[in-house]
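## retry 2 of 3
previous attempt timed out at serialization; input unchanged, resubmitting
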Amino acid sequence: MARDSAIPPESFEEILAWLNSDRDMAGAMYVQLRENLARLFVSRQCADPEGLTDEVFDRVAKKVHEIRPGYVGDPRVYFYAVANKLVKENFRKIKTHASLDEIEPSRQIVPESKEEEADIADCLDSCLQTISSEQRELIREYYAKEKQAKIDHRSELAQRFGISVETLRVRVFRIRVSLEKCIERCLVRKAQRK
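## retry succeeded, writing output
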C-alpha cells in the first residue's frame, strides 16, 4: 500500500528543476520516472512498489540541495541508484524476518481429562519461569484480548516495544514454540513418573 510522500514543497520544486528547466517537461519526466521506478520494484518482486517509489523520492528530496549543484549527467540515474539501494535493503530486510507461512503449525496440546488439564497448567507455569520476565509479559499480553480489542492491543504492544506488528508476531511465535516444546517435555516427564 502506498503511503503519503513527505517531500517538502521546496524540495519537490528543486527535484523538478533538476529533472528539467522546462517545468512542463520536468512534470512529465517526474510522472514517467515514478512509473518506471514502480515497474522496477515490481520486476524485482518487492512488496509495496508505490511505497518504495515514494521512499526513493523522499530520500532524494533530503539530499537534492547537496547533490544537484555538483551532479553531472542525467539526474534520473541517481534516482535509479537510490532505487537499487532500496531493493538491496528490502531483500536484506526479508532475510532477517522469519516467514510464518513456511513454518509448520505446532501441535496443539489438548487435554483429554481434568487431570491432564491440571498437568498442562502446572507445566505451563513451570515453563513460563524458564523465560525472561519481558518474554512472559509479552506472551501474556499478546493473548490477553479478543476480536478487535486484540488487534488494537497488539498494535499498541508493538509500539510500546518499538517494533513492527510483524516483528511482534515473529517474537511471540518463537516464544510460543519454545514454551510448547517445554510443556511437551514436562508432560513426558510427568507421564514417566506415573
